[in-house]
Specification:
about 25% helix; Immunoglobulin-like; alpha/beta; eight-stranded parallel beta barrel; six-stranded antiparallel sheet; 28 strands
Length: about 650
Amino acid sequence: MEKKKPIKKVEKKAERRGKKGKKALLPHEIGELDQYLFGKGNHYEIYKKMGAHKVTVNSVEGVYFAVWAPHAKSVSVIGEFNNWDFTATPMERQEPVGIYTCFVPGVEQGTMYKFSVETMKGQRIDKADPFANFTEKRPGNASRVTDITNFKWTDKAWLAARDKWNHKESPMAIYEVHPGSWMRHPRPDSLAAEVEWDGFYNYREFAVAITDYVKKMGYTHVELMGILEHPFDGSWGYQVTGYYAPTSRYGTPEDFVFMVDYLHRNKIGVILDWVPAHFPRDAHGLADFDGTPTFEYADPRRGEHPDWGTKIFDYSKPEVRTFLIGNALFWVEHYHVDGLRVDAVASMLYLDYGRQEGQWLPNKYGGKENLDAIEFFKHLNSVLLGRNPGALMIAEESTAWPKVTGKPEDDGLGFSLKWNMGWMHDFTEYMKLDPLFRKNAHYMMTFSMEYAYSENYVLVLSHDEVVHLKCSMLNKMPGLGFDKFANLKVAYAFMMGHPGKKLLFMGQEFAQLREWSEEREIDWFLLAEDEHCQIQNWYQDLLHLYQKNKALYELDTDEKGFEWINKDDTFRSIFSFVRHSKDNKKNLLFVCNFTPMERPDYRVGVPKRKQFKLILDSDNPRYGGKGVERPQMYKPVKEECDGQKYSFAYPLQPYGVAVFEY
């Protein structure tokens, strides 16, 4: 109730001014209500007024500029239209929150500009627009005037379906992609050596190419890295300077819209990496924006990451919360993005993250929890998911913080999904082991089921696992040649059968040999070799198996959806389990052999005396197998095995995977 009263007061005050004959605000102008909501952290569409917007005032076309610089002595807008002269176009300060505004006639689409800030110490710093919708292509860093109000969308049916979508009971197989290094144009022979060539696909080219590939493979979503504008390619997009601008590396905002729209028309969801945890120190960016810590905590013990050399947002400031929450809504509502994968959540939740004793400040209760960040997440997720049913907020949270996907009203953070980093660590460490020693680490593969229903999880093998000398997924595998590929096949099958949504980083679906680098495209040339094609075939068929069988996704968050048949076969390193569908009509039995030992007499226990149909066999020549003919149908007999009343025998191959339907 206390929030509503002041808003009404502001509205009545504005109404009285109108009755007295004072000029009414134009739609683009910053008014008292805007400032009030901005100062309270609740102006969720402030981006429609802040920044640079093309408008017409008294029949004169131009651009309305607005920037928040509360501790600046003065601010002017500089750009191509005034020869970058800070004396030419001063801005007017509006109280009480310190927003500077001005209207500049005649400024055209595409014009470059910045804000020239005079600090209280008399220094002058030139800053890119925090709310810019388009920017100069790196290495330049100026903002560009653009109009993003008239996009043409054709994805109405997709958005309507999304509103009713239940992610918990739907398939989600995510292809994590860095657009600049997924695929590149070859350097033309005619281009001089001294001419820079990055070979990037633009958003439109990328949209067509990635859609064809994703549909062929069977992914449901793409997660795009490095879309928010950033100055340095090597940051992979995780040090953002332009939160409201799709990077100009791959084209214009209109091109970006084409990409999202095209993917939606082909029934592919779009997730963006989003970075509210920190931002870089670049002189043109958010750091010390008005000469003081404006967006960041003032005390470096809270406002700086020692390991990353970046600044940390001050979540206690309502204007900063507005900036970030409005930004999340901007991508979901204005650009129709289906979800945000929130980076580095743990670094936001813990005040001592990455710090030694004495380098951090405890909260008011003496603890290490960042109370501001906790409230920020509850606010953010409540608003975004409340306004956009069917959208996704996905947390990359690497600790055991409770209730990350719990409801805010139950003291949860309110995310839709959480990356399962614990599973990823145990899984990859187990797979690195020589098969001879896996029996000693057997329960690393079963432990995740002890907490599988504590959160809504995504199983991830992301870019972080194939860089910085961690090896590609193939080269994590033990052995040589056949053994590496066979290990990877059984690993991917186990992952696909395990409860949780799925994510795999680009290139790993065809067993990339090298670690990933943003400086080149992934190694598509490997598909000229049979072994890599066979892995790609295997992962493709796993994805199609996943999408076609409700047992693999509709009970992901319900313990009724998974049943161990044998999780204790430590000596043979074989795991068998069942995934159940809601109606129990099409259940799937997985048998995964993690050693090179053939088990011609392998017997598996089953819960019912039904016909079991072999629907996926890793011994198929399509996957590099020997193609030994074996029956397709198996009838269990009443013979106890694995604690079950019934069982049947199946010749299990070295590193063999068999999936049966019943």
